[in-house]
Amino acid sequence: MKAKWRFIDSNNRSPYYNMALDEALLEWHSKGEIPPTIRFYGWNPPTLSIGYFQKAEKEINFDKVKELGLGFVRRPTGGRGVLHDEELTYSVIVSEEYPNMPKTVTEAYRVISEGLLEGFRSLGLEAYFAIPRSEEEKNSLKNPRSSVCFDAPSWYELVVEGRKIAGSAQTRQKGVILQHGSILLEIDEDKLFSVFNYPNDRVKERMQRAFRSKAVAINAIAGRKISIEEAKKAFYKGFASALDIDLEPYTLSEEEEAYVEELARTKYGSDEWNFKR
């Protein structure tokens, strides 16, 4: 018998709702109220999210964020800035005690990300895991130079033709792993680089050039246009197959929705949370 996990497709929601639902799922799973869950979602409006430890005021050009009509939210996970626009975002919520779930962050990350690997492969992309080899690569992971998430592949990030194609982050709370990440279908580099602060234009240009050589979106290499729907099908199958599970579609109850909306408003929508560092 395969284990049964829940599957939730939230479609496009506000940045605050998206982070609140991920947190609520972690909370409910920690109490044993729900089984492990995989969730797909999008963003309305397109949103800049930053990692838990980033300094918002210092790193982000908020005039530009406003001018472009972007949402802004701090994630409960680490990592760097991500512009969520034409992408499929996923989250996986599973107990640290789940059978065969490795104890270390990097190994658990690899196990969960196998679902992404299978998804990319079923879309016809030759994806593989990046493993930092040299000491220099390992050190650069400890001291990222850039505020931009897709700037460098870290342990077990997914790579196609040498460039990073999905960026993920993980947090563990209450004995539960929450891993979420972005699968980019398209990427607007100019827009992405316009929302961060740089010491000067030269540094910005250099970083943008470096980024181009290190990150890529699915549709730039697939040789055809892959829709969100096609991507959802591929990654749904990818997770089910890699984790050897049955996914059961689930819709939140009114009570659950109300809880998430409240958390979105009081926590993730608050300046205290988003600008606290």
Automatic annotation (TrEMBL):
Pfam families: LplA-B_cat. It catalyses: octanoyl-[ACP] + L-lysyl-[protein] = N(6)-octanoyl-L-lysyl-[protein] + holo-[ACP] + H(+). It is an enzyme of class 2 (transferase). Keywords: Acyltransferase, Ligase, Transferase. InterPro entries: aa-tRNA-synth_II/BPL/LPL, BPL_LPL_catalytic, LipM, Octanoyltrans_LipM/LipL. The keyword tRNA-binding does not apply. The keyword Coiled coil does not apply. Its EC number is 2.3.1.181. Residues 32-247 form the BPL/LPL catalytic domain. The record marks 164 as: Lowers pKa of active site Cys. GO terms for molecular function: ligase activity; lipoyl(octanoyl) transferase activity. Pathway: Protein modification; protein lipoylation via endogenous pathway; protein N(6)-(lipoyl)lysine from octanoyl-[acyl-carrier-protein]. GO terms for biological process: lipoate biosynthetic process; protein lipoylation. The active site is at residue 149. In the reaction, the free carboxyl group of octanoic acid is attached via an amide linkage to the epsilon-amino group of a specific lysine residue of lipoyl domains of lipoate-dependent enzymes. The reaction proceeds via an octanoyl-thioester enzyme intermediate. Catalyzes the transfer of endogenously produced octanoic acid from octanoyl-acyl-carrier-protein onto the lipoyl domain of GcvH, an intermediate carrier during protein lipoylation. PANTHER family: OCTANOYL-[GCVH]:PROTEIN N-OCTANOYLTRANSFERASE, OCTANOYLTRANSFERASE LIPM-RELATED. Belongs to the octanoyltransferase LipM family. Monomer. This is Octanoyltransferase LipM. It comes from Priestia aryabhattai. The lineage of its organism: Bacteria, Bacillati, Bacillota, Bacilli, Bacillales. The gene is lipM.
